[in-house]
Structure formats: C-alpha cells, structure tokens
C-alpha cells in the first residue's frame, strides 16, 4: 500500500518550456496559488475557484478529480479545452494519452489495475485571449454542477472569433464538445443572435439525464443559455 499524497514528485506545478507539468496529487488550493496556472491557464483557475469549498479545495487533488471521472468534475471541461494529456505509470512502464481518451464515462477510465496517474501535461496556448468557465449549481458554493460550460476563444481586436473551443459538463456521461458550433462561430462576432442559434445546436448535442439535482430538460435549456454569456464578455479578454 502506498500513500500517494506523500510522494513529492507527484505534487506541484512546473513550467517545462512548451508545456506545463502538474503533479496529480497537487491540491486545488495549491493550484489556485500557482502563478504559472494563473498566467497560462486562467480557465482552469476559474473552475478551481468554484470547486467545492475551502476544506474540499485544501484536501482534494486534481488527479483525484480526473480519476473520479464524474461528469460534474469541475476541472474536466477546462482540461478538455486545454487538450491536457496525462501520464500513467505501472512498475517500469509508462504511457501518455489525452484526457479525452482516458475518461470513458461516469467513474470509468482507462486506468489499469495497479496503474498510477503520475503527471498532467498541458501545452501553453497563448493564442487564446478569452477564457470562460461557469457552473450552474443549486448554490454559489459547495454545490455540484447541474450544468457547467467552458470556452476558450481567440478573437480579433474588433471581436471576430478566429478560433473557438467549447465544452459542457454534467450534461452527458463525459464532457461534451461541439465541433459544429465551434466551426459556426469562426468568423462571427458574438452577438445574441449568433449565440442563440448556437444554443439551439447545443441543446441538441447534449445528452443530459434526470437526477436528484435537475431534470434533463432544465439541463438542456441551460446548456444552450450559457452560450449567451459569451456575448456579455465579447471583446473583453478575461
Ligand atoms: C463535500 C464535497 C463537495 C465536492 N464538491 C465538488 C465540486 O464542486 N466540484 C468537483 O469537481 N468535485 C467536487 N467534489 C469531489 C472531490 O473533491 C473531487 O473528486 C476530488 O478531486 C477528489 O480528490 P482526492 O484527492 O480526494 O481523490 P480521492 O477521493 O482520494 O480519489 C478519487 C479516486 O481517484 C483515485 N486516484 C486519486 N489519485 C490518483 C492517482 N494519482 N493515480 C491513480 N488513481 C488515483 C483514487 O484511488 C480514487 O479511486 C466534492 C467532494 C465532496 C466530498
């Protein structure tokens, strides 16, 4: 039996040039305190700020959040959008894969028996000037996401979208992306009209369930509505 939280190599954040290493046993609080995360991945910062509560952020780790593979996991939409890769190790061998390939469904991953998640790697993406993460829950704090939504955008000085990455959490077994909406937004300004059209597509793409926290219909509606937030932030890099 090995207590992972005492292995120093599995903790911390390091700038390794083109990519950033995040130790899976790094707590959310430590990530929130990291200038490297703040500088390079503000979207992850936004998600960490609304994850659980201070005691949960002091104890919980990003690796635990990934391996838990909850559709409501707050770090997952940002990690998908940032195209994070993870490293898995067992004895002498290791393998690296994208987080999208690793997570198969609620609580289901490709982690083999005895394997340990030993690293998270995220390439720097300086081209995105617009970072957004929002979660809708029953309360503002200590509430699991009913729907979450993240966006990374590259916009021109006059607010035209040059590249868009969008992801929804808690509305399907895993994080949902929509290449169709991403392509549609390219070349557009983020007007309410454009985003309402995108919202209709989003409502068709998500596959939510009814559960104790919300109905599938509510989740579908909110998943589309959350796109309208992008209009509010249009042209204002965050
Ligand atoms: C009251 C409460 C509120 C919460 N609120 C939120 C919330 O708002 N948003 C949210 O996203 N989550 C929330 N959570 C869930 C929880 O905080 C996260 O899933 C957390 O990231 C778990 O981290 P941990 O280090 O405690 O993992 P653990 O619980 O220790 O581990 C989770 C699983 O991952 C495995 N594991 C962990 N690390 C590794 C590794 N390095 N390699 C291989 N396997 C590993 C463990 O064996 C276990 O199966 C909440 C939990 C509680 C109790």
Structure description:
Helices cover 32% and strands 25% of the residues. By secondary structure, it is of the alpha+beta class. The protein has two domains: 4-123, Uridine Diphospho-n-acetylenolpyruvylglucosamine Reductase, domain 3 (2-Layer Sandwich); 130-232, CO dehydrogenase flavoprotein, C-terminal domain (Enolase-like, domain 1). It has a five-stranded antiparallel β-sheet with strand order 1-2-7-3-4. It has a four-stranded antiparallel β-sheet with strand order 8-9-10-11. A hairpin with a 3-residue loop joins strand 1 and strand 2. Residues 4, 24-25, 51-52, 56, 59-61, 63-65, 67-68, 73-74, 111, 116-117, 142, 144 line the site of flavin-adenine dinucleotide.
Record the SSE blueprint.
Blueprint (H helix, E strand, L loop, with lengths): L12 E3 L3 E4 L5 H5 L2 H6 L1 H8 L4 H6 L2 H7 L7 H6 L3 E6 L2 E6 H4 E3 L2 E2 L6 E8 L6 E7 L10 E9 L5 E9 L6 E2 L1 H7 L6 H14 L10 H10 L3 H4 L6
Antiparallel strand pairs: 1-2, 2-7, 3-4, 3-7, 5-6, 8-9, 9-10, 10-11
Helix pairs in contact: 8-9, 9-10
Task: Please give a quick description of this structure.
This protein has 238 residues and is α+β, with helices and mostly antiparallel strands. Helix content is 32%, strand content 25%.
CATH class bucket of the largest domain: Alpha Beta
Oligomeric state as shown: single chain
Total count of helical runs of at least 4 residues: 11
The main sheet orders its strands as 1-2-7-3-4
Radius of gyration: 18 Å
Low-confidence blocks of residues: none
Would you identify the CATH architecture of the largest domain? Answer: 2-Layer Sandwich
Instruction: Briefly note the CATH topology name of the largest domain.
Output: Uridine Diphospho-n-acetylenolpyruvylglucosamine Reductase, domain 3
Structure summary, number of beta strands: 11
